[in-house]
Amino acid sequence: MNPFVLGVDIGGTHITAATVDMELRALLPQTQVREHINAAGSVEEITTAWAAAMAAAMGKSGHPVQQIGIAMPGPFDYANGIALMQGQGKYDALYGVDVIALVADKLGLDKSAIRTLNDAACFLQGEVFGGAAKGYGRAIGMTLGTGLGTARYKNGLAEDADLWKVPFGESIAEEYLSSRWFVKRYTELTGKQLPHVKAMVDKLPQEPVVGEIFREFGENLAKFLVPFIQEATPEVLVLGGNISKAYALFGPALRHGLAQQNCLIPIKTAILGEEAALLGAASLWVE
Question: Any stretches that span the bilayer, and where are they (predicted)?
Fold first, then answer.
């Protein structure tokens, strides 16, 4: 195994890259680069910006870096390096293009030196590699925020579980398990409007209704997780994303709901933050 690998996280508006010490399972913080990306740009503009950020991070490491792991949003053909995003307001110009070959060429590397994985899977991969789920052989992960990300980990590799759109309640899971549900539910129960989940948390303890909303969220999360746990048989559940920071408010209802269905497993909140995807991407090179 190469002792140093570049971990990269590509988002809808940015790219973050840092060299990872594979033995310590940690980022070299002085190597981290974060750049804004114009996701509406041309193929040449986007791939040049990506390659420049990667080259800058590799140049800061002081160590030879010959391998790259990238956390890439879907839809994407991860085996062949071809972008398949369309109509999502980001990277439309890249549709059908072998972007990994283009980036590798700009960096003077062989295409085989770059591996990619779905970004939700990289979050879980990172938390298993060097975070909250270190030492576990089977895990599931959820990112709870503006959207719903789900992943499962076994046999050394995480994969996107892609459960955001499964039927749930009167709609799909993401409509009940993301930040917009909180804002909508608060308005339904109080007639008032708040911009985001943190503003709701700040209303405690003056507004007990906020506690009730978090309890309801925990119950919904348990209902969603029961079939996921039964199917994946994980040893641990990792929760990430901004909503997970309020775990103390919905955790009791979640654990109670899982226990009622004999599905209670250890629950960990993610500890790596944005670093999880970088570590997870780099860990694609663990043989």
Answer: none
Asked if 240 and 127 touch (Cβ cutoff 8 Å), the reply is yes
The backbone torsions φ and ψ at residue 215, rounded to the nearest 5 degrees and listed phi first, read -60, -45
Q: Are residues 232 and 189 in the same domain?
A: yes
Backbone angles phi, psi at 21, to 5 degrees: -80, 110
pLDDT digits (tens, 9 = 90+) for 21-36: 999 999 999 999 999 9
Whether 129 is in a domain gets the answer: no
Residue 221 zone, left/alpha/beta (φ > 0; ψ -120 to 50; rest)? alpha
Other CB atoms within 10 Å distance of the CB of residue 195:
9
The total number of structural domains in the chain stands at 2
**Residues 143 and 257 occupy one common structural domain:** yes
Query: Is the whole-model pTM more than 0.90?
Result: no
Q: What is the CATH number of the domain that holds 198?
A: 3.30.420.40
